[in-house]
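Next up, sample data.

:::
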Amino acid sequence: MSDTISIDKAGRVVIPKAMREKLHLAPGTSLHAEIVGDRIELTPATAEVRVVREGKRRVLTGGVPFDAAKAVREAREEREAQLAERLGR
């Protein structure tokens, strides 16, 4: 997925909605910016993920908010679209 974006007078860029959704970037998400050669790479800053005990269970806490059901649904839809394209539908 790629897109062309512009920089405003204040030096800000807007990441297109489709890209934000694909990478599960929510308002307030911290990004790490790095110059690599002649490019700028943005990656989500890693949040500390810990395993904690809740009653008898161990659960993961921290990290970036993530809607697993939505991610699975989107992955299935993307795969179905790829298969339909291969079959010429």
User: Anything to note?
Assistant: The chain has a mean pLDDT of 86. The helical segments are 17-22, 68-86. Strands lie at 31-36, 39-44, 49-54, 57-62.
